[in-house]
Design brief:
About 8% of the residues have low confidence. 5% of the residues lie in helices and 52% in strands. The chain has 1 helix and 15 strands, in the order E-E-E-E-E-E-E-E-E-E-E-E-E-E-H-E.
């Protein structure tokens, strides 16, 4: 158990999981997941593969993903290969990353307030897109 009572789980490179994963913990994935994944924070290793939807508060992706990604704070590293739509509030993409899909900023808020008026921005709710070199 880590400080503050939070937990961190690792899915090793030799592990293949077929089925959905729901975790209240932070996850580090080096293996293969064939199913949807939901967690607080996700770190994906370069050699890992996820085939299914990802939903998390924060994610740092560096492997292969085939499926829809819905993450509040998303970092896509140069080794990432993503095939699917990406929904985010803040996004950082390293040069060299490969994404085949559509980007939809602020999708989490839109889903929660689909009947909300036109876009309202404030300091805390500002949309951001960062390109890392």
């Amino acid at each position: 158990m880590a400080n503050g009572g939070s937990t961190f789980s690792v899915i090793g490179a030799d592990v293949i999981i077929r089925g959905d994963i729901e975790a209240s913990a932070d996850l580090h994935v080096d293996g293969t997941i064939e199913g949807d994944l939901g967690c607080t924070s996700l770190v994906q290793g370069e050699s890992s593969r996820i085939e299914g939807a990802i939903q998390a508060d924060a994610a740092r992706l560096s492997g292969t993903v085939k499926g829809t990604i819905t993450v509040r704070d998303l970092v896509i590293l140069r080794s990432a290969r993503i095939d699917g739509d990406v929904h985010y509030e803040t996004l950082t993409i390293e040069q060299g990353a490969n994404v085949n899909g559509r980007f939809a900023p602020d999708a989490l808020k839109a889903a929660k307030a689909s009947a909300a008026p036109a876009l309202e921005l404030g300091e805390e709710n500002e949309q951001r897109l960062t390109l890392a070199g």
